[in-house]
Amino acid sequence: MHGKPERIFSEYTFVLIEEWYIEYGESFNLICQSNDYDNFLNYVEKPFIQLCKEISKRLPSCLAFQPINNNSLVNNASIVEKLIIDPDHFENHELCLQADFSKINLLYIQITQWGIKGGVREEIYQNILHEVSQKQPKAMMELISSKASIFYPDKYILIEKSDILYYLGFKHLVYEIAEWFKQYLPLLILASVDDPIPVIHQYLSKPKEPKFESWKDKTGFEEAELECWLNTINRKGQAIICGSPGTGKTFLAEKIAEYLIGDYGFSELVQFHPAYSYEDFIQGIRPQSQNGILAYPLVSGRFLEFCKRAESYQDTCVLIIDEINRANLAQVFGELMYLLEYRDREIPLAGGNRFRIPKNVRIIGTMNTADRSIANIDHALRRRFAFIELRPNYDVLRRYHLKTGFAVEGLINILQQLNQAIADKNYEIGISFFLTDNLSEDIEDIWRMEIEPYLEEYFFNQLEKVDEFRWDKIKNKLWI
């Protein structure tokens, strides 16, 4: 995520709700008449109304919250039932402001001192199911057996205060609740239409919007390749993009992540290195000074923190592990080796606590095959990842320099000859070295200071081969 997320609720919002509960209990009138009501209006009620309105914009009309001209929930008896005490929630009494969604009052949303909850009224829900079951029973049973999830969605969504304040921006909060409400749209269709089967089939078969309009322009790769890669990553859950230096592995990983996360997911990048450990990635005991006393708490590592945050999002969340092969993977991953293969399981970690990988988490690693080939990766790890191989793509180089005017055919011919001389796909020279807008000015420095040292290392006992590709030998063949 780039920049600071937009927020409409603050810590003070939840402090006010809790303080008013402690002071006034369930007496709604006392709150309205108190001297502090302006604070309640500005920090609780108005932001809550704004949230409801923004959610409504994302919903079909039958699910939308429609406030009357008077915006105040407090004075709008048709929308607010009351400030209520809910003994079933969190096994605690709580003060909450509640608004109804949907014309039949099936759905509601609450803000409490604990967070924000979207719920369904069980009695109305059961009445709808009963009504649905009376319509074309045979066809309905066939539909239930094939699409049971539309009849038995989650009964509530809870977004805790910590997530609202520290993880979710306002747009993500709106998205989370709106998408949960949409689970009930098929049920409302079934309940309100005399012959619901054709309508529900039409709803379920809506065409998907095209995804990849600008993929080729952004990356130089074809849409069909992206489709294949995305399907592989979603099927497996994790993949490693591997290739020789300069093939654009990290660039591609970031672009794939952009498509996977959509508008309401997020991605993060972590760089592996030889000193990276299980404690850094999963969890471990770390010494900390607390009030002058040395303590040794169990602290979550980067991956556990990432997964905790991902649980607050419904869209895909992607962790990019750059240069994944530079760390001791069996040691760093620990129990994660099991969970990567059995994504639906939960297991205890070595240091305590139980852990599972959220369903919306994807992992993309990048691997420089000049450092370590796939063949040298532990077999148990290899079968847990899909591998996307990148080779030097000269068409990407051609398309890039259409905008710069640099004639690249001479350079491409030299790179092809050079890679034939290297004769090992794990060590080929990629094209990203030359993706610069001032290549005519930069190419000599690139060749002398990056390409030649690489060749000297690779051909350390055959330096005569390096001499064939020294700058002085190839510069006249570049046609610059």
Model description:
The chain is of the alpha/beta class and 480 residues long. It folds into three domains: 11-204, no CATH class; 215-390, Rossmann fold (3-Layer(aba) Sandwich), CATH 3.40.50.300; 394-477, no CATH class. It is built from 22 helices and 16 strands. It has helices at residues 11-24, 28-33, 37-57, 122-133, 137-146, 161-166, 170-182, 185-192, 196-204, 215-219, 223-236, 249-261, 278-281, 302-310, 329-333, 336-341, 379-382, 394-400, 409-422, 439-458, 463-467, 471-474, and strands at 84-85, 95-101, 107-112, 115-120, 156-160, 238-243, 266-271, 283-285, 288-290, 293-295, 298-300, 317-322, 347-348, 354-355, 361-368, 386-390. The strands form five sheets. The protein has a five-stranded antiparallel sheet with strand order 1-2-3-4-5. A five-stranded parallel sheet has the order 7-12-15-6-16, with helices on both faces. A hairpin with a 5-residue loop joins strand 2 and strand 3. Helix 3 crosses helix 7 (170-182), helix 4 crosses helix 8 and helix 8 (185-192) runs antiparallel to helix 9 (196-204). The longest helix is centred in the N-terminal third of the chain and has 21 residues, at 37-57. The chain starts with 10 loop residues before the first helix and ends in a 6-residue tail after the last helix.
